[in-house]
Design brief:
Number of strands: 11
Bound molecules: (2R)-2-(alpha-D-glucopyranosyloxy)-3-hydroxypropanoic acid
Largest sheet: 3 strands, antiparallel
Number of helices: 16
Length: 433
């Protein structure tokens, strides 16, 4: 297939999932607006649907809470096709949720400043007004993360696996094992996800019980706990923290574009990076890890989230060499037709499953974010391999949510928006690094 045809196909996926003010991540499995999905979608749409890219991010930030939090899901309606929906989350229990907004009460990784910068770069003459409107919202969002989500440490915490964006990554297993849901605690419920995707691809019922229990713990506290150290699940996620370092840097650039001073954001990035490097680096594995804030120990599973350190900072050799060695040795999976893509965790890691989501397969957004980091570290050769692997998977298998590269199969939802969006970005060859 020619590059042109591939571009048309990718754009058609985004167009079909467009709902007038935002793009749903998937036709049936995810029928609302998701926070980090919208950032990736805007990055893809900036090339051929610039107005939509702008509206996508504006719509998401219209639902921003008054404390700065950008919710991880903004519910379009009461579609019973998704559970847990707005009537379960009941965002109105928080005084911070704006009137008329129905959303979840947790957030997702902060890739939005990176997306706003990318959208600006595609159309600087019209983009300046967009940047002016978005900057105060991004400042409030990042400040919320530093001020509310960091407890006893500069490192940002996730209080629910869904907030990590990598929901049932085996990385969280030790932290989730400590969450006990006594029989009869939860009201009976019906999962909707297993109606739209193969149950073998999705989390187990026991995991779902814990997910809902953790939502209830947060909802009972109005999503604004004043006993943050007592929360049952508190993880200093490597992906969340490294992407915020990157986002602060991009926010400083955005401030510069509108003639404002970005030095405070760069200072925040430095302070956060220093904490990442001091507390999340493991000399034993030669990788960065997430930390269980309950107990203060590094979570042992090696995950691809570690490589986002390359996206966040220019790394010194003593960090880059071991990281790249682990990447090549344990994560890179060949793709039929050419190229390689990173697995979520190595095949020999406890909990690896080639098809269950976030427990092993390859994801287009992780591949793209890591490629951005490889470019930053001067490893365009490896970034090109990732690009080739991702394009071959999408071309040969389809725009799936995620992939088992060894079997060349697609999983989760088909026609998945961020897979199409990031293919578009790669085809335009317009790196945002
Ligand atoms: C829960 C929408 C989202 C992504 C997440 C992915 C998955 C939701 C789910 O889908 O999570 O938020 O129901 O499984 O894990 O990264 O944003 O695409």
């Amino acid at each position: 297939m020619t590059a042109q045809t591939m571009e048309e196909r990718a754009q058609a996926v985004l167009d079909a999932n467009w709902l007038g003010r935002f793009t749903k991540p998937a036709p049936r499995l995810y029928p609302h607006q998701w926070s980090w999905d919208s950032a990736f979608i805007a990055i893809g749409n900036r090339h051929r649907r610039w107005d939509r890219a702008v509206l996508e991010l504006e719509t998401l930030f219209d639902a921003q809470w008054t404390n700065g939090m950008v919710p991880h899901i903004v519910f379009a309606d009461n579609d019973p096709g998704y559970f847990p929906g707005g009537t379960y989350w009941r965002s109105e229990v928080s005084a911070h949720c704006p009137q008329g907004v129905s959303s979840s009460g947790i957030c997702q990784p902060p890739v939005h400043a990176t997306a706003v910068l990318a959208v600006y770069k595609a159309n600087p003459s019209e983009g300046r007004r967009f940047v002016e409107a978005m900057v105060p919202k991004l400042v409030a969002w990042h400040d919320y993360l530093h001020e509310v989500r960091a407890v006893d440490s500069p490192l940002i915490e996730v209080w629910h696996p869904w907030a990590s964006g990598r929901d049932n990554n085996p990385e969280w297993d030790p932290a989730l094992d400590a969450v006990h849901v006594a029989p009869g605690t939860l009201a009976p419920y019906q999962r909707a996800d297993v109606n739209h995707a193969d149950p073998a691809d999705r989390p187990s019922d026991a995991e779902y019980d814990r997910y809902l229990f953790l939502v209830e713990q947060l909802r009972n506290r109005g999503y604004d706990p004043d006993d943050r150290p007592e929360l049952p699940f508190r993880v200093r996620d490597i992906l969340m923290n490294t992407l915020l370092v990157r986002a602060e840097e991009d926010l400083a650039t955005l401030l510069g574009i509108i003639g404002a001073d970005g030095s405070e954001r760069l200072a925040r990035a430095d302070r956060l990076w220093d904490a990442v490097d001091e507390h999340l680096w493991s000399p034993e594995t030669g990788m960065y890890h997430s930390m269980n804030a309950v107990g203060g120990k590094l979570l042992p599973v090696r995950t691809s989230g570690s490589f986002l350190a390359m996206t966040a900072r220019d790394l010194p050799e003593e960090r880059l060499q071991p990281l790249l060695a682990a990447f090549e040795r344990d994560f890179m999976a060949p793709v039929a037709g050419g190229g390689r893509v990173p697995l979520t965790i190595p095949v020999d890691e406890i909990g690896f499953d080639p098809i269950r989501y976030w427990r092993g397969p390859a994801w287009i957004n992780m591949t793209w974010l890591i490629a951005l980091g490889l470019e930053r570290q001067g490893r365009s050769d490896l970034a090109r391999e990732l690009r080739a692997g991702a394009l071959n998977l999408c071309e040969n298998v389809g725009f799936y949510e995620y992939f088992d590269p060894k079997a060349a199969t697609g999983h989760g939802s088909d026609d998945f928006s961020w897979s199409a969006a990031l293919v578009l970005e790669w085809l335009r060859g317009d790196q945002i690094g």
